[in-house]
Amino acid sequence: MVDKYYTPELAEFHEGFEFESYNNMDWHWKKDSSGWKKLVYDKQTYMTYPLSHIKGALGISWARVKYLDQEDIESLGFISDRPYNGEFRASALMRWDGKEETLKLSYNEKNNFISMRLDCNYGEEHLFQGILKNKSELKQVLKQIGYE
């Protein structure tokens, strides 16, 4: 992957969406030395800055989202099964049918393709295959499959 960040579409914004904003927008969250601040879109953000305000910011590239990477996946409780080289596998434990099973994840950073399967006592259960661009999308899918 060439770029580490992309400009999000307005439709991507939802409760819990993680993004960064350039300091010209008067947000009050943590700012790093580059002038970009890490933000999470939530009810308070919406009350202060409605989507119409964010739409204007997107038009002038004052908002960006980091593409999904190994660090994001590991921050959600996954442990790398092999060294990172642009494509990697990771695993985490999750409750499934009342038992603790291993959730296996494969991720290709070049095309953002991710697959998740459950390694359980009766074999493998494929839970998801598709393209996920960022950590917020991964968190949504993990919630949908029951990983908390």
What is the overall pLDDT average? 83
User: Could you list the spans in which at least 5 consecutive residues all have pLDDT below 50?
Assistant: none
Q: Helical region count? A: 4
User: How many distinct beta strands?
Assistant: 9
Radius of gyration of CA atoms, rounded to a whole number: 17 Å
Q: What fraction, in percent, of the residue positions are helical? A: 10-25%
Largest sheet: 5 strands, antiparallel
Structural class by secondary-structure content? alpha+beta
Spatial shape: elongated
Give the topology string: H per helix, E per strand.
EEEHHEHEEEEEH
Strand content of the residues, in percent? 35-45%
Distance between the termini: 28 Å
Strand order of the largest sheet: 5-6-7-8-9
Count of folded domains = 2
Quick recap of the structure?
By secondary structure, the chain is of the alpha+beta class.
Structural commentary:
The chain is of the alpha+beta class and 148 residues long. The protein has two domains: 5-66, no CATH class; 70-145. It contains four helices and nine strands; from the N terminus they run βββααβαβββββα. It has helices at residues 43-48, 51-59, 70-75, 135-145, and strands at residues 5-6, 17-22, 36-41, 63-66, 79-80, 87-96, 99-108, 113-120, 123-131. The chain has a five-stranded antiparallel β-sheet. It has a four-stranded antiparallel β-sheet with strand order 1-4-2-3. A hairpin with a 6-residue loop joins strand 5 (79-80) and strand 6. The chain starts with a strand and ends with a helix. The model has no long low-confidence stretch (mean pLDDT 83).
